Structures are given as C-alpha cells and as structure tokens.
Amino acid sequence: MLRQFLVGGGVSLVNITIHALVMTLVVNVAQTASIRKIQHPSLFLIAVMIPTVSVLMATHALEVIVWSLTYSIVDAAPAEANLVYFAFVNYTTLGYGDVLPVERWRLLGPMTAMNGVLLFGWSTAVIFEVLRRALALHRR
Q: What distance, in Å, lies between the first and last C-alpha atoms of the chain?
C-alpha cells in the first residue's frame, strides 16, 4: 500500500506542478490584458474566457495523460485497457467501472480522482478570477 501512496502522491505532485505553471500563466495574461483600455467589453470578455477555458481543458487533458503514462509504467490496468480512457474515467470521477485496476494498484484510481477533483476546483477558481477581472474592466 505504501508503494501506491508514493506513486500516486508523486504523480499528484507532478500534476499540481503542471497546474501551478499554467495557472500562473493564465492569471498573468489576464492581468496584462486588464491593463489595456478596452473598446468593446463584451468582445473582450469572450476573447478572454474562451482561451482561458480552452487552456485549462488542455491542461487537464495533459494531466490525464500523465496519469495514463503512470498506469502504463506500473501496469495498473488490465492489458487490453485503453489507459487514457481509464485515466479520464478516474480523473473526472466518472467511474463507469468497465475497466478495473489490477489488485496491487487499486488505490491509484481514487488517488487519480482526488487529484482531478482538486485540480478542477482550482481551475474553477481561476476561471472565476479571470471572469471577475474581465467584468471589472467592463464596469470602468
């Protein structure tokens, strides 16, 4: 069980690092964009939110791939399993249950889900902050 916690914790830290780097970039871009004088606030809001959400979605997809690579390295899923699908199901807490981890790596699924839930929450907070800043510009 300790090995599962160490592997899951390590992958979680890698994903937290990826997320922190992207969050810093997104917030910095939003701050820089908010300095300029805006001619069309509604278009600005659209122009800021679409890339923000798209970048965050791509970041989550990258984090799922990190989990799927880990599953591959440690042989956490049956040989016939699609590892990216399996990682997405765990990361998003969808939980179809059509692919089950092998017994010795059973805790990686819940650890993947915990990592995904926390990172989705963090993304939601950043989306809200970018939206708040964009709307503050609209009021100026």
A: 55
Rounded distance between C-alpha atoms, residue 19 and residue 3, angstroms: 24
Question: Could you tell me which of 116, 122, 112 has the C-alpha nearest to residue 7?
Answer: 112
Cβ proximity of 77 and 101 under 8 Å:
yes
CA atoms within 13 A on the CB side of 1: 0
Domain locations in the chain as residue ranges: 42-139
Computed from CA positions of residues 113, 5, 64, 54, in that sequence, does the dihedral angle turn out positive or negative? positive
Which class for 120: exposed (0-12), middle (13-18), buried (19 or more C-beta within 10 A)? Answer: middle
Q: What is the pTM of this model?
A: 0.90
Query: pLDDT, tens digit, for every residue of 27-83?
Result: 888 777 666 666 777 787 888 889 999 999 999 999 999 999 999 999 999 989 999
Instruction: Tell me which fold the domain 42-139 belongs to.
Output: Helix Hairpins (1.10.287)
C-alpha to C-alpha distance for 48 and 137, rounded to whole angstroms:
12
